[in-house]
Amino acid sequence: IAADRGARRESKSKAKMSLASMEFHERSVPFGALVCAQLGGLGAEVEKVARKDINTKDPPQLVVKANGARFEGAATCLRYFARAGSMKSKLFVDENPVDACQVDQWIDWSVVMKPGQGLPELLKKINEFLSTRDFLVGGGLTLADVAVWGTLASMPLWENKLKKDKSLSSLVKWYDACSAIPEFAAVVAESKAKKGGATGADGKKQKEKSVGSFDIKLVGAEKGKVVTRFPPEPSGYLHIGHAKASLMNQYFAKHYEGKMILRFDDTNPSKEKDEFVENILHDLKSLEIHPDETTYTSDHFPKMLVLAEKMIKKGMLYADDTPVEKMREERMEGIDSVRRNRPVEENLKVFKEMQQGTEEGQKHCIRVKLDMQNPNKALRDPVCFRCNLTPHHRTGTAYKVYPTYDFACPYVDSAEGVTHALRTIEYKDREAQFKWILKLQQEVEPSLPNVNIWEFSRLNMVNTVMSKRKLQWFVDTGRVSSWTDPRFPTVQGLLRRGLTVPALRDFILQQGASKNTTNQEWDKLWTLNKKLIDPVCGRHTAVVADKRVPVDLVNGPAEPEVEIVLRHRKNPATGKKALTKTNRILIDQEDAKAVAKGEEVTFMSWGNCFIDDVKTDASGEVVGLVGRLNPGGDVKATKLKLTWLPDIQDNLDLNLVYYDHIITKKKIEEGDKIEDLVNPDSKKEVAAIGDSNCRNLQKGEIIQLERKGYFIVDEAYLNDKKPMVLNHIPDGRQK
Fold first, then answer.
1. Which residue from 689, 550, 543 is spatially nearest to 621, judged by alpha carbons?
2. Predicted local distance difference test score (pLDDT) of residue 211
3. pTM for this one?
4. Who contacts 615 (Cβ-Cβ below 8 Å, separation ≥6)?
5. Which stretch of 66-75, 293-302, 692-701 has the lowest confidence by average pLDDT?
6. Beta strand pairing status for 293-296 and 70-72?
7. CA-CA distance, 493 to 504, in Å (whole number)?
8. What strands lie across the sheet with 652-659, from one edge to the other?
9. Can you tell me the mean pLDDT for 468-480?
10. Which helix (H) or strand (E) holds 561?
11. Distance between CA atoms of 7 and 13, rounded to whole angstroms?
C-alpha cells in the first residue's frame, strides 16, 4: 500500500508533457504554424524556442513529444498543428474535395512567396482575387488564409514597404482582417513582446521607454545547465505578482536552454488545498507557462526529517518551548533562548515527541542555531520545524511536524539541482539566512550543491492587495464572491474582468528583470489590453433600462425592417448581426436631455433625424421625443451621434457590472488595517436593455457596447427570466 501511494505521488509530481516543441530563428517566426496551434486550442501545449545562434534561413524544426517524430518547414509544421487541433475539418475543408485541393494549392504558393522579382506580381494577382471575396477559399477562414497570412507576417519587406502600396488595398484589407482575429493577434503580440517591446493590435512597437530589459547575465550560468524553479504555496490562487515570477523563471530557463521546475511549497497543511493546486496549474496553462518538471516539497519530507535528526546530533538545531510572544521579543532584542544550549539527547527526545504529535511535542518548535546578536534579524535562530495536526492535502495524517519555508527551501532547491533561485527583492535580507542554513545542511550532506540567488523587483500595483492572507480575508468575510472575483488581482479574476492573456504577458514582460521596485498603475495595463481587443470585438447596443426614452419617428417604417450588417464595420471576421429599424426606438435619458427641439441628430447605423418635439415631466425628465427621419442628411454636419434600440420584444435584459479598486489607498503601509481601507462602493450594477443579437454571445466573449465601453460576458443568455451579466472592462482612461 505504501509503495502504491508513493507511486501515485510520483506520478502526480511529473509535469504534463507538452504536445510538441518548435525551434526557429527569432527573426523568422513561423506565424502560420503558431496561429494554427492557437486556433486548434493547442497554444498552451507548444514549447516555442526562438534562437539567435542559427541561420535565419533555416526552416523551423518541430519535435512531437509523444514519439519523438521530427518535422521541418513552415508548411509542414502548419499542417501538423491543423491536423492535431480541434479545427481540422474546418481548416482543411475536408467535406469539399475541390475546396480542399484549393487550400493545398494556396499552402504550396505560400512557400514560394519570397522577396524577389516575382513577388510584387504575385501579390497583385492575390489582391485581384481578394477584391470580390473575404477569404481565399470558400466563405470562411481556412488553412489557406493562415498559410498566406503567416508568410506575409514573417516578411519584413511586406510590413515595411509592400503593405503601404495602395494598389494592394484588397490584400491589405484581408491581411488586417486576419490580423484582428484574436488567435492571430495573440501570436503577433507574443512575438513582439519577446523581442523586448509591448505591441498594439497592429503589431507596432510601442514607446521604447516603457520596455523593461532582460539583458541580465546570471552568475555561473552555463548553456544547457541552468535550472530555475517557481515555488508557489498552494494556499491561494495565482495573482499578477506570481505571474511575473513564473514568467521570469521561464524566461531565464529558456534563455539558457535549461529547465524550469514548478514546485508546490506545501509545508503548511492549515492553509493548503488541492483546489489551489489545480487552479495554479490551470492559471500557468492559461499563461502558456510549461514547467519541465512538477514537484512538491512534501516529496522531501522523509529526507528532511532524517536531515534534521542528523543536524540535532551535531548541535545545529535545538527544541524550544518558549512562548511565541516571548520568543518574538527575544529575537527582536537579540537575547538567547534558555533552551538554546539544551543537551542533544533532550532535543532528540522532544523531536520524536513532535513527530508523534504528543501534547509535549506540540508545545515545541525546532530552531536552527545561527547568530542571535546579528544585526540581520533573519539570522536570529529562525524556526525550522513546527507541529501541525491538520491533515495534509497530499500526505494526510502521515506527519505531525512540518519544515518551515526557511529550512525547506535551501534544501529542496539544492536537492532538486536548482542552479539559480530567482526571488523577489523583499527576500534580500533572507539571502544570508538561505546560504547559512544550506551550508549547515551541506555539512551533514556534503553532496548537496550550492544554489545561486538572484533578486528581481516585486510587481506592486496601486490600490491592490497582493497578500494571500489578506485576499483570503476578503473571501472569508464575503466582501468578494471568490478568489476569481473581478476585483481581485488573481489571474482568473483579471481574465474574468476582461483582461486578455497576451496583454497580461506583454505588460509583465515590459517590466523586465529590473531590481527597482515601483508601484505600477492599472491604467497602463488596461490601455494595452484595449489596443488588443478593440480591433477584434463585435459592436452591440444597450440603453439603461429605467431611464430609457421612446422616440416616435413619424416617417419611420410601419413594419419592422431588418438589415444584416457587420458586427464590426472594419473587421468582417467578427461576423454579422441583425439591425432592426422600427417607427419607435429607445435612447438613453442622458442623450435625450442633450437634444434640443428642432435639432438634427444622427442615429448611428441609420441616418439623420430632425427632433420636432421634446416632452418632459414636472421634474424635467424627458419622457418622449418625436422625430422625422432625414435620409439625405449629412452625418458629418450633426453634433450628436446617438445610439438607439428598436422598441421590440426581442430586446433582452442585461446586468452591466462596473468594478472599482477594492481598497481606497494607493499603497498599503505597515500598520494599516485592511478593514479600514475597504472600498464600500467597489461594485455597481446597472440594469439595461440590449439588442437581440446579444442572445448569441458566449461566456467569456468580449464586446463593445457602443458609447458605453467594452464588456465581457460573465453569464451568457439562458432564458428571459434571468438577465445576461456583462462585466465592464476598463480602457485605461482616467475617470
1. 550
2. 44
3. 0.72
4. 622, 623, 624, 625, 626
5. 66-75
6. unpaired
7. 12
8. 538-540, 702-705, 709-715, 724-729, 652-659, 683-690, 542-544
9. 95
10. strand 561-566
11. 10
